[in-house]
Predict the structure.
Amino acid sequence: MNVKESINRFFKQCKRVLRVSKKPDKEEFFNFSKVTALGIVIIGVIGFVIILISQLIGI
């Protein structure tokens, strides 16, 4: 398979994905935002707890 065929196949796959994809509606976007915010908060709390424990232990 040469480079030209690889590029053509890649662009065909990209066009297919763009045809199938859709813009999220307001409710779906709000749900994604809530889940993302929740994940950020959970990761922040875990990091805070780890730092707090390391400060208490004296590492």
In short: DSSP finds two helices and no strands in the chain. The mean pLDDT is 92.
